[in-house]
Amino acid sequence: MFDIDKLHEIWQTITRNKARSFLTAFGVFWGMFMFIGMLGIGQGFENGLKNQVSNVATNSMFVFARNTTVEYKGFNAGRLWNMRQNDIELLKIQIPEIKTISGITWVGNFKAAINDKNTDVFLQGIDNLYYEIENQNITSGRRISYLDVVEKRKVCVMGNEAADQLFATENESIGTMIKIGSLYYTVIGVVKPRGNINFGSNPGTTVYIPSSTAQQLGGRGNTLDIISISVFDNVKIKTIEEKVKDILRAKHLISPLDNNAVMTVNIQDIFLMFRYLFIGIAALIWIVGLGTLFAGVVGISNIMLVTVKERTNEIGIKRALGAKPKIITKQIMMESLLLTFVAGFLGMFFGILVLVLTEHASQDAKMFSNPTISFTMAITGTIIIILSGLIAGIIPAKNALKINAIDALRNE
Description:
19% strand; alpha+beta; 53% helix; two-stranded antiparallel ribbon; 3 domains; 12 strands; elongated
């Protein structure tokens, strides 16, 4: 059974020297406070960064055409070339690891208007597979479909920020015709970006039209500005990156030695770099946090050694009256554990409180989100506190057992 009176007696013993106990316990409090705080802050930055890049598939890459830098087969260096719609079919056939491949055509900046309202938008052509690579939430209506692309329909999907400038509500926009530049398009949907990675313009102010319509509008034939590719889950982008470049260089008569003409952005490698970065940050937090906590534990162990020294006579009398070694050990260990647990728990509580306040104060911060610790981490912290208390009491308890009852009474 849990003995309240015994616990009260232990607490009175601990608080006999309040100033010394407070200063010693503060080390554990501060160690746990720093540990929880740094874990939460680190998690907040990790969550914020993940939110910023959550709109792009982690197993994807983007391909761009750039000027050539090497003379080849009669073509001078500096030649501007374009990727084309049939490049998509060629890459899909020759690289079976590709799961999804989509073409993007940029049209440019325009004024979008309806009645007396207008806003600046970026017009971009996409196909029906685009949203499998760049994830966006459809908040009203629908996305660009296969038939929209095949039939070159004059329909558009608006970014939420652009829609807010032109319509009172998103539902009001669906089925409405808006003027973009000199042409009219029917709004079929409104999307909200999940993150902030973009290859063109802010997704919130972008208006998406079928890629075939965009190519016809700009007199671009079947040219593309970007080819976006995603691979199957068990495939690394690195394994197909050079294949993509080789195929495009061969088809468009570009020197195999020209490393500038075909530019790729490997999103998978970027995500992997971020993962290693946060693993390193987490390891640093654990080292610093546990180091600070360990310093507090050493302080408690030292104060318990002093306490044992001061209570030599008391412990000697208990030994003389027949107190068993395990009783003495239990008392010292309980004092150490109680002091560590109270200080550590308060440190954890105030650490979590600061994280909650920080979360409310940083709701508008894009690179910082939800700086909290998981339930598992809270349990881990509690276990660390208990183990720390037991470790802090081991040496003092051993010293207490070395006290000889006769010598203690003689000193008395």
